[in-house]
User: What shape does this take?
Amino acid sequence: MKQTRRNFIRTGSLTAIAGLSGINTIFGAMNNSASTRKFKNKGLSLRFKPYDLQLKHTFTLAGSSRTTTPVMLTEIMYEGITGYGEASMPPYLGESHETATRFLSSVNLEQFNDPFQLETILSYVDNLAPGNCAAKASVDIALHDLVGKIMGQPWYKIWGYDPAQTPNTSFTIGIDTAEVVKQKVREAPQFKILKVKLGRENDKEMIEAIRSETNVPLCVDVNQGWTDRQMALDMIYWLKEKGIVFVEQPMPKTAIDDMAWLTQHSPLPTIADEALQRLPDVKKVHGVYSGINIKLMKCTGMREAHKMLTLARALDMKVMIGCMTETSCAVSAAAQLSPMVDWADLDGSLLISNDPYKGMEVIDGKVTLIDKPGIGIRTI
Ligand code: MG
Assistant: This one.
């Protein structure tokens, strides 16, 4: 723990800040009581710390396998109150501890002395450099957490959402041998929907293995793995017979015409994941896919995710909210939006063994929001 405190980096100076007041906030008591407000800040202050998530199981996608995920944990402090944020950076998305350190070191929040000006502050952060979406999300989430704490309300309430409307979350079963897949299904009896990674030679074998263990609804994520649209359509008809409820990113993100054809003919909804990142992409995938998978790490955080959700609804598209392997910090931030989505895939914190936070819980398979201010997390 001393090591992690030493590694916490404050923007601007890049100096370690062990010994400064408020240093205990990330793994200590929340520092947000009225009595701490005597610590007058000139402006907002940001600090960040690299961290590696340890995965419980090797995570296999159509393209790669890994056992750890690098993340950056952030804090924004204002008048003795601390908001928490996170950037999750699976390697295939191109961000890393190094890129996030470089980007976050360029963020100067001390020029802002009103945290409620989310639009101004987060537009400034977004315009500092292109890309860096996860690093930007780590600032966005911390700022939302801070503002919610100042208001004394969780974001699902600020947005006007009913916490009883949260969906069940899917639980992801990675690509593996039939025996291992069966074992993973047996270990997840509390989940009311399972997500299956497809896109290899053994797709039907994977589904048959799971169906030999459970009849719960399944969704599939092909991660761009099918390249022939007629084969994809035949497969989707087969999947419909097996109780699959939607198909995520069946074809390469560049196969726009084939994908529009597939969606038009598909008996199941198709969901864009790799094919979209940010708000302007929602219009681009409209008419090509049935719906979108919003992830905070792709779209720079809660502010833009909320806008994407609203726009997709206006366009009569399906919406799911997803995540990377993340701590309870980023997952709890995403969960604030979940009462308004069709499907949630918020199992990221369940896949790791070293979560430093406690927040949104999955109870009996359902996303369960906590009536605590901000994004509703605490350090453990
Ligand atoms: Mg996906």
Remarks:
- Residues 221, 223, 248-249, 273, 293 surround magnesium ion (CB under 6 Å).
- Residues 2-152 form a domain with the Enolase-like; domain 1 fold (CATH 3.30.390.10).
- Residues 116 and 185 are 44 Å apart (CA to CA).
